[in-house]
Design brief:
This protein is of the alpha+beta class. 56% of the residues lie in helices and 17% in strands. Strands 1, 4, 5, 6, 7, 8, 9, 10, 11, 12, 13 and 14 form a twelve-stranded mixed β-sheet that branches. A two-stranded antiparallel ribbon has the order 2-3.
């Protein structure tokens, strides 16, 4: 029997029982929709995590002081500054795998401009390569120079939130703000960065030369820094950069072999990979649970096809009597089963896309600070079609095989 004729017969049979066919594919629709929605939401979460780490900077490595034991006394983190601005300069110049490095010195306080005041989320002293490390750019103005660092100049660069809170319509460039009654001239405005993964506003920031923060606000040594932020030259050179940094700091800090380091080196790429594995595992788990609906839908298809074989026994007998072979009957019922499953798969994918878009919109409604990307997964579409076809073949084969094995004489006698 020609394939097109078989397909036409299968469609005619499905049209005769529209309600039954609709109820049969419902399980497949629900299963495919659930899998599609879970895969899309999982991909959205993965893209969000990766985007947040990209916003942190380019191939970032973080170095900070750690507690260490010298003799019988355990010194806690921060008890004695161990990292210096000279360490940062040495890392940038002596480590071939490092693109740039910047020391960071933190500080907190109120910012005053005219009759307005505001408390930034972050006030940091940084080096001239900080924006390179963070993959950040300036919207207006300029950044610090070597001269500003050397002279501990009273200049600063501000984020967009500071502009909105203190200046409204006034152009901030060249204006003077006061921190602890010390005047600072604004020389630059940062591009908008947005919120981070935990919802903190990254644009609510003021940056100053690290020497300025140390000398004028913290009244400490020029050299002492809290953290050193490093950017590797490429993602595949992160491990190489880490090893070079550790070796250099062991030499600079005169740490004997076998002694614990007074610093820690953290690779943010590894953290991103771990989070990506977590989101991927959760997506797989939820998709597996949702996939149970596909099995339920497949059982429904098998049940209805068995009923259809029973109802159409005389029809099968007539076709066999006029020359149809067992393979023709098998193919006819198998095509009906696959059609049911594929129609359910396509409807389920469309419903799953709608669910993922709706869920993303709901998440974004309750998480104003972080916007989840809407991801329509092409692999999920292919998966929906392949899985639904597989369900049709697996669960439709037995009824089709049973129909093909009917005895023509007994089938013609069936009432």
């Amino acid at each position: 029997m020609h394939l097109l004729i078989t397909l036409r017969i299968a469609l005619r049979a499905l049209r005769k029982n529209k309600l039954r066919a609709t109820l049969t594919i419902l399980g497949v629709v629900i299963g495919i929709a659930a899998v599609t929605a879970m895969v899309s939401i999982g991909q959205s979460a993965s893209d969000l995590v990766q985007g947040q780490f990209e916003a942190l900077g380019t191939n970032v490595i973080v170095i900070f002081s750690s507690g260490h034991r010298r003799g019988p006394v355990q010194q806690g983190q921060g008890a004695m500054p161990k990292l210096t601005a000279s360490d940062s300069e040495a890392i940038a110049t002596e480590c071939p795998a490092v693109l740039a490095a910047s020391p960071i010195v933190g500080f907190g306080g109120q910012v005053v401009y005219g009759n307005s005041n505001w408390r930034p989320r972050e006030m940091v002293g940084v080096g001239i390569d900080y924006l390179t490390v963070r993959n950040w750019s300036l919207r207006h103005g300029g950044f610090f120079t070597d001269r500003d660092i050397t002279s501990a100049a009273k200049v600063c660069v501000i984020g967009r939130t500071i502009v909105a809170k203190l200046f409204q319509t006034t152009n901030p460039l060249g204006e003077t703000i006061r921190i602890r009654n010390i005047p600072f001239r604004i020389i630059g405005i940062l591009e908008t960065k947005g919120a981070n993964l935990v919802g903190e506003d990254q644009d609510n920031v003021i940056m100053m030369p690290h020497t300025t923060v140390a000398k004028r606000l913290r009244h400490t040594s020029f050299e002492a820094v809290d953290v050193i932020l490093v950017s590797a030259r490429a993602n595949d050179r992160m491990s190489e950069a880490e090893n070079e940094i550790r070796q250099l700091l062991f030499e600079r800090h005169n740490i004997p072999p076998g002694e614990p380091a007074d610093f820690e080196v953290k690779n943010t790429t590894e953290i991103a990979k771990v989070l990506d594995i977590i989101t991927g595992t959760m997506t797989l788990l939820l998709s597996s649970i949702a996939g149970i609906s596909l099995v339920v839908g497949g059982v429904g298809i098998m049940n209805i096809m068995l009923v259809s074989v029973t109802e159409r026994t005389r029809e099968i007998g007539v076709r066999m009597a006029v020359g149809a072979r067992g393979g023709d009957i098998l193919r006819q019922f198998l095509i009906e089963s696959v059609l049911l499953a594929m129609i359910g798969g396509l409807m389920g994918f469309a419903l799953g896309v709608g669910l993922s878009v709706g869920l993303t919109a709901i998440i974004n409604t309750f998480m104003n600070s972080v916007k989840w990307p809407t991801v329509i997964s092409i692999p999920a579409a292919v998966l929906a079609i392949v899985f639904s076809s597989a369900v049709g073949i697996v669960f439709g084969f037995y009824p089709a095989w049973r129909a093909s094995k009917l005895d023509p004489i007994e089938a013609l006698r069936y009432e």
